[in-house]
Amino acid sequence: MPVSVSASTQVYRGLKEAGVRIVSALPETWLVHLIRMAEDDPEMTLVRLAKEEEGVGISTGAHLAGVPSVMLMQNHGFLAAINGIVSCGQLYRIPLLMLISQRGSFGERDPWQTEGGGVTEHVLDALRIPFDRLDSPAHVEKRIAKAQTLAHSASRPVALLLCRDLMWED
Amino acid sequence: MRRVAAIQAIYPELERSVVVTIMGAVAAELQSIGHRPNFFYLQHAMGLASSVGLGLALARPELPVVVLDGDGSLLMNLGGLTTLARYRPRNLVHVVFDNESLLSVGGFPTATSTGSDLAAIAKGAGVPRTATVGTLEELRGAFVAAQGAGELTTLVAKVEAVGPAGYVTDLTLLENRFQFARHLKERLRKE
Question: Complex ipTM, two decimals?
Answer without folding.
Answer: 0.97
